[in-house]
């Protein structure tokens, strides 16, 4: 396992090293063509229809293409669609383009025309206005259709149901009774799950820049507001070439650190608080995802050290169980067991196997762990794929559920403690007994959220940690001890 040692680098030095190196490898056009070939081979016979993203309807930032559409086309302009006609496992692809309005082009720039697409991307190209007629004629042949829906984020696909692509295909199906329409995302997700060397190079760069952001946040004068920490993170991301945050930066102090996806970042932070910093950058479309938990004062209390070390030990256990050929569940289980044992030792649960009546529905028979008291303080899983989306497919999601070369993923155990969480429990005899037993210890660890998250890839040599922000207690405290004094207003 190749784990870079960050302790040997002075703060912020890595940023200079990044730009002293040659630029990260870009993805060649031939790789995009090979992806389309792989999709066609898996479809066999039929028509693939995919829609890209729409022109933004706000002026908060530029257009960013939808991950699946970018993966197949590398066409990063809005209001486009792709149609691939597949016969005997071979596909012929056409892009359908929407030119920018002449006046709007003065504001936002011109878009590539058909000639440019044919010359630079090796795909046929037509005006978007022709797409309805083309797809109608293909549907009349009785061919099966495979669609890539144009939802903005796979995490919210159920809520993002009235997209242009879905409305378009609904119209086609209404005119062709018996048309077979299948979801192609399962096929494309499996293709996206194995990262190529060029993709891994971009992920490494994203993780390096993101790690520098966390070093920068640990190096500012003692903050009094969450947004001071957010500013340090995101300034470093942009300064070092990151395109945008991979997701809304999460900077939660005290109680806010126990809210998993807290993104307001406007609250106060004060000495004695922990701050959960879950923030990373996207580089050339590829997203890193890193979390560190730091003490506002620069020194962890004894209780904070206990929780932090427990989470770090859980992450290290998961690392040991995240090797090629190993089940992803082994990493999850080892991380869970370490934390459950530690929580019992700290008196925050009655025992490793003790259960609760949760505020949400759990299937205790199918998944006994989901009903254990320890899970109440952990809540979430410890891993997800990373890539063109911050929650990207990984090979361990499919087939035998083992890690394989080309996987890219996070390991992110956490523990979150607050008396307000106890207030959310249903009033049952089991829960009353639990609260009576653990509340004094919960108050001792009040408003303590700890999460540690790093990015990893599986190579021919094994597991490689590609994020290297300080994570040991001693190295975080040593870096924060070098912070400048806060200026007195």
Walk me through the structure.
It is built from 16 helices and 17 strands. With 489 residues, the protein is an alpha+beta fold. A hairpin with a 2-residue loop joins strand 10 and strand 11.
List the helices and strands and how they pair.
Elements (H helix, E strand, L loop, with lengths): L12 H8 L8 H15 L2 E6 L15 H7 L7 E7 L2 E8 L4 H7 L5 H8 L2 E4 L3 H9 L5 E4 L15 H12 L5 E3 L1 H9 L3 H23 L6 H14 L4 E2 L4 E4 L20 E5 L2 E3 L2 E2 L3 E5 L6 H19 L7 H19 L26 H6 L29 E4 L2 E4 L1 H5 L5 H16 L3 E4 L2 E6 L2 E4 L7 H8 L9
Parallel strand pairs: 1-5, 3-4, 5-6
Antiparallel strand pairs: 1-2, 2-3, 7-10, 8-9, 9-12, 10-11, 13-16, 14-15, 16-17
- What do the pLDDT scores average to? 93
Low-confidence stretches: 1-24
- Percent of sequence in beta strands: 15-25%
Order of adjacent strands in the largest pleated sheet: 4-3-2-1-5-6
Radius of gyration: 25 Å
- Biggest sheet details: 6 strands, mixed
Q: How many structural domains?
A: 2
Please name the CATH architecture of the largest domain. Alpha-Beta Complex
What general outline do the C-alpha atoms trace? Answer: globular
Number of strands: 17
- N→C terminal distance: 48 Å
* Helical stretch tally: 16
Structural class: alpha+beta
Name the helicity range.
Answer: 25-40%
The name of the CATH topology of the largest domain is Creatine Amidinohydrolase
CATH superfamily of the largest domain: Creatinase/methionine aminopeptidase superfamily
> For the record, what CATH class of the largest domain applies?
Alpha Beta
């Amino acid at each position: 396992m190749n784990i870079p040692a960050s302790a040997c680098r002075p703060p912020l030095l890595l940023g200079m090293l990044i730009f002293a190196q040659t630029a990260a490898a870009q993805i060649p056009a031939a790789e995009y063509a090979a992806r389309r070939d792989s999709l066609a081979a898996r479809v066999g016979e039929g028509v693939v229809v995919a829609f890209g993203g729409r022109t933004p309807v706000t002026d908060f930032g530029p257009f960013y293409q939808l991950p699946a559409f970018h993966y197949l086309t590398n066409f990063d302009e809005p209001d486009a669609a792709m149609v691939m006609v597949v016969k005997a496992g071979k596909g012929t692809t056409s892009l359908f383009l929407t030119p920018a309005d002449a006046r709007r082009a003065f504001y936002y720039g011109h878009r590539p025309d058909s000639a440019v697409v044919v010359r630079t991307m090796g795909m046929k190209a037509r005006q978007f206005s022709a797409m309805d007629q083309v797809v109608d004629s293909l549907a009349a042949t009785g061919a099966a259709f495979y669609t890539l829906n144009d939802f903005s984020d796979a995490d919210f696909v159920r809520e993002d149901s009235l997209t242009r692509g879905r409305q378009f295909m609904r119209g086609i199906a209404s005119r062709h009774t018996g048309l077979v329409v299948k979801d192609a995302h399962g096929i494309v997700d499996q293709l996206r799950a194995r990262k190529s060397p060029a993709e891994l190079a971009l992920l490494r760069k994203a993780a390096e820049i993101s790690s520098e952001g966390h070093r920068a946040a640990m190096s500012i004068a003692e903050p009094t507001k969450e947004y001071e920490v957010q500013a340090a993170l995101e300034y470093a991301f942009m300064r070092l070439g990151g395109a945008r945050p991979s997701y809304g930066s999460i900077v939660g102090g005290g109680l806010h650190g126990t809210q998993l996806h807290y993104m307001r970042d406007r609250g106060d932070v004060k000495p004695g608080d922990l701050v959960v910093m879950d923030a990373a950058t996207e580089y050339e479309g590829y997203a890193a995802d890193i979390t560190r938990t730091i003490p506002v004062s620069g020194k962890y209390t004894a209780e904070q050290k206990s929780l932090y070390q427990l989470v770090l030990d859980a992450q290290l256990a998961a690392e040991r169980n995240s090797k090629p050929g190993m089940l992803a569940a082994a990493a999850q289980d080892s991380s869970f067991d370490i934390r459950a044992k530690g929580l019992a030792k700290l008196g925050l649960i009655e025992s490793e196997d003790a259960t609760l009546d949760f505020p949400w529905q759990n299937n205790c028979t199918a998944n006994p762990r989901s009903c254990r008291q320890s899970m109440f303080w952990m809540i979430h899983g410890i891993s997800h794929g990373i890539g063109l989306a911050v929650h990207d497919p990984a090979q361990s999601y499919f087939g035998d559920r083992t890690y394989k070369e080309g996987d890219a993923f996070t390991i992110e155990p956490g523990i979150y403690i607050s008396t307000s969480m106890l207030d959310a429990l249903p009033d049952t005899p089991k829960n009353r007994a639990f609260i009576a037993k653990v509340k004094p210890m919960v108050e001792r660890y009040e408003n303590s959220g700890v999460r540690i998250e790093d990015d990893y890839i599986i190579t021919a040599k094994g597991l490689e940690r590609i994020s290297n922000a300080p994570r040991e207690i001693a190295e975080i405290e040593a870096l924060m001890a070098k912070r400048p004094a806060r200026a007195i207003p």
